[in-house]
Amino acid sequence: MTTPAVDADSQLLIHRCVDCRRWIHPETERCPECAGELKAEPVSGDATVFTFTVNHHAFHPAVPVPYVIAIVELAEQPDLRLVSNIVGCAPEEVTIGMPVRVLMEQRGDTLVPVFARA
Ligand SMILES: [Zn+2]
Predict the structure, then answer these.
(1) Per-residue pLDDT for 29 more than 70?
(2) Ligand 1 centroid to 98 CA: how many Å?
(3) How far apart are CA 79 and CA 99, in angstroms?
(4) Is 50 left (phi over 0), alpha (psi -120 to 50) or beta?
(5) What is the distance in A from the centroid of ligand 1 to the CA of 79?
(6) How far is the CA of 24 from the centre of ligand 1 (A)?
(7) How far, in Å, CA of 5 to CA of 93, rounded?
(8) Pick from 61, 24, 56: which is nearest to 40 by CA?
(9) Helices then strands (H, E): number in the chain?
(10) How far, in Å, is the centroid of ligand 1 from the Cα of 3?
């Protein structure tokens, strides 16, 4: 899955259909429901952990192991899910259904949206 965009205020941006108002992630060319145009809009950043795994293998020097790779479901829409990391707590404290909130983590030159316990 693609990493969602972040705007100048470090808000998480997700694509949304301008016609039926459905949120779409990962981004597609057109709305899969009504073929409407998509436009990035900020979301609340509130989410819950849908599922997760603890990773012990280092992929990026800026990210120490172990860390949690999670699929989080955004509060805006029941099937609006994205892959991210859960930060700020021990991996064994993460549970499915845990409420989380987005925060932006600097990794090299890019701000990456990650989630911490709400
Ligand atoms: Zn649509």
Answers:
(1) yes
(2) 30
(3) 16
(4) alpha
(5) 15
(6) 9
(7) 28
(8) 24
(9) 0, 9
(10) 21
Q: Which two tokens stand for residue 90?
A: 């021990």
* CA of 55 relative to ligand 1 center, distance in Å: 36
Dist. CA 31 → ligand 1 center (Å): 5
Q: 81 CA to middle of ligand 1, Å? A: 17
Q: Could you tell me the distance, in angstroms and rounded to a whole number, from the CA of residue 112 to the centre of ligand 1?
A: 27
Output Rg (C-alpha) for the chain, integer angstroms. 15
Percent of the chain residues past pLDDT 90, beyond the cut? 75
Cα(38) to centroid(ligand 1), Å? 8
Domain map (residue ranges) of the chain: 5-117
Q: Are 18 and 48 in contact (CB under 8 A)?
A: no
pLDDT tens for each residue of 50-85 = 999 999 988 777 778 999 999 999 999 999 999 999
Please choose, from the candidates 1, 102, 3, 13, the residue with its C-alpha nearest in 3D space to the C-alpha of residue 49. 102
